[in-house]
Write a structure and sequence with these properties.
The protein is an alpha+beta fold and 666 residues long. 46% of the residues lie in helices and 16% in strands.
Length: 666
Amino acid sequence: MPDPSTYRPAPGTIPVEPGVYKFRDVHKRVIYVGKAKSLRSRLNSYFADVSGLHPRTRQMVTTAASVEWTVVSTEVEALQLEYNWIKEFDPRFNVRYRDDKSYPVLAVSLNEEYPRVFVYRGARKKGVRYFGPYAHAWAIRETLDLLLRVFPVRTCSAGVFKRHSQIGRPCLLGYIDKCSAPCIGRVNADEHRQIVEDFCDFLSGKTDRLVKELEKKMHSAAEELDFETAARLRDDVQALRRALEKQAVVLGTGTDADVIDFAIDELEVAVQIFHVRNGRVRGQRGWVVDKSGDAIDEVEAGGEVPALVEQFLTQFYGEQSTLAEQSGEEQPGNVVPREVLVPALPRDAEAAQQWLSGIRGSAVQLRVPQRGDKKALAETVQRNAQEELQRHKLRRAGDLTARSAALQEIQDALDLDSAPLRIECVDISHVQGTDVVASLVVFEDGLARKSEYRHYAIKEAAGDGRSDDVASIAEVTRRRFAKLRRDLDAAEAAELAESDSDATESSLPGIDPKTGKPRRFAYPPNLYVVDGGAPQVNAAAEILDELGITDVAVIGLAKRLEEVWVPNEPDPVIMPRTSEALYLLQRVRDEAHRFAITFHRSKRSRRMTASVLDTVPGLGETRKTALVTHFGSVAKLKEATVEQITEVPGIGVATAKAVLTALHTD
């Protein structure tokens, strides 16, 4: 591994002022760009202890061959310079929230004599106004179909427009009044552009004015007894209102805000942003990217989320500002709204707010929603981010090619004799050493096999009240493989007792001798994974050696740096962050953790339930079970009335009152 100390700047040569720095590799390519309030403090942190860095950061500093910096006078300048350098050099170790060209938008070609409206994906062009992005193209077409009866703008291509101009007849949309047919001169260029401008005003949020104007025209036509025109205008108003209904009102009228949130795991980050204009969700987009892994940012910011917020704000709004300039957009409010809601304020919140205000041209408020509708919307955005991250991981897990590659990579990385077609993983859960439980999950051919899951209540927890994960891992391993050892011994004994000619399938390990069918949970795993580092994996390996199990590979997956530990090895195995093998191992570990947490909560809930209901005189186990079973939980039982409780067989009025008294006293 290259030594970063070979290019470490001499002590005292790094300035203490704010600035932006670049790491370059041996070929002088920029591989990472960062900024800091104090360049000296930040850069020294990269060279203090390489082993303590996040794997991605460690890889970056060992790939680099030099570092350079530029001093600036303010943090706002540093923010702008950092964005410019990231855009210019596209460093491989920086997270890039690139504008996802797969998101469709509604485009209006204002640079044409007769502007047209169309669904578009791709880079922004000058003279074209964009609305969106939208989650699906069909959603744009549905809304557009409703609006064309009110705003009959041109939607045809240049070739179709020219052809109908030559033949002197409009297309079908012109005949059904969903196009004003400028191709045949039904409206002139100025009249058509006015229709287009009204269409753009409606999509940009000026809905009330347009609806009121149509209603005014409708009433005027009715007063003049022009009922046909009044009926058509009535239908137009209804069409506009149906289009508005498709855009849910989430905040108060006049509210312009972007709501941003993240879902994070050890390797990746999913980000979602909802664009709210005039109180309605006008667009939504999301990304799933690798984590930056910059442990220095995380320490100084007090956590991962503030660093992620700062990265995203800089790159996203910087990119949107550039796109707006390229397309000739003159309304900065379409790039940065008046309010940006984030899950946590970035490290340099004031500088970020000033930078965003500079892009907008007026004040921008950057804040964390605390209550009310904005808090509820932020929670919705966060759920969307979590679901997107989960879908992303499931797409990888559901890909047969990816699963096969993952199993092969695990075999190669751990030097196994064969691919680990069956993987078992154990995880421990407790609260300060109490209610210690363990989970054991099973994956076969890279997919979860939930019928094989097991959970354990730990019997040999440390007696001093402290958690002893190593002892718990050893206990679970012994209990899981002792059964396998007994099955193997029984099969061997059966083989010795029977002659080769009389041997049957029933003597094979894993086969039930009574039914001749495979027993559940009777086969050993190819790979046994424990959640932890060297102490946990060594404890599990010792138990397997003690039981004489020699054909099961054991590893530990340490959560902090995603290191793979092998028994009795001083150094871990480091798998590439983007490898399918690490994704699979991480998913197995996360599933074991989820299953353990679920069991732990249910056990703790039962214990707490029993402790409360035990105080009720004359209430035995049978009636306690009947109460909890009838209401589903203690919380629902606590909300019940005396009459509802007496509906449970065996519970009288006096007992029901005693139960409620105990629950409300607790």
